[in-house]
Amino acid sequence: MNFDGDTLEPLDVDERDDIAFRFAKALRAGETISSATVDVGVNSGTDSTPAAILVDAHQVSGSDVLQRVACHLPDDDVVYWMRCVATLNSGRKVTIYGRLRIVRLQ
User: Is 0.85 surpassed by the pTM of this model?
Assistant: First the structure.
């Protein structure tokens, strides 16, 4: 699943998948990602511990930042916002923001 600042296809409550924050369009010649942070919160619905959907640490892979996510609520329909800030070797910081809906797909 790729984030480019939009809403992703829904993720089923039983799925575990990697979200790719794709920064290639934001990078200038010679820039690389030095580090990144990934934050998550609730856009709509109820989840008192939204960070629990983040599984393991994120990984920088070329011009992408990968974050594995998994549902921790059995039946709720929750839309999360996800934000990734990449710090570049040039000192610039660039951000990608999007929404992820987790539901029980029928």
Answer: yes
